[in-house]
Amino acid sequence: MNSEEAEQTTRQLCRRWAEELGITISVERRPKFSEFYFWLQKHHSARLEFLSRLGVAYMIETWFDREFNQPPRN
């Protein structure tokens, strides 16, 4: 899977994850990347298999933040 496919798939899975768990996104309730990443590892581990110079987890977190309109973390 190339980077563009990985981003598209990850962002779709972000929405599915939030929907499945009934997570509502608001200023007060920001979804937690660690919870999403754990879910992704458990249910869609094959989606973690792509090449990235910056690292797979870093890229997934970046796309997660963008999908939920969150500021990047340090």
Structural class: mainly alpha
The overall strand count is: 0
Order of helices and strands: HHH
Share of helical residues = 55-70%
Q: How would you state the average pLDDT, rounded? A: 86
Query: What portion of residues belong to β-strands?
Result: under 5%
Number of discrete helical segments: 3
Distance between the termini: 27 Å
Shape: globular
Using the CA coordinates, give the radius of gyration. 12 Å
Q: Domains counted in the coordinates: how many? A: 1
The major beta sheet can be summarized as:
none
Unreliable segments of 5+ consecutive residues: none
Describe it.
With 74 residues, the chain is mostly helical. The protein has one domain. 57% of the residues lie in helices and 0% in strands. The protein is built from 3 helices and no strands. Helix 1 crosses helix 3 (56-67). The longest helix has 19 residues, at 3-21.
List keywords for this structure.
single chain; 74 residues; mainly alpha; 3 helices; 57% helix
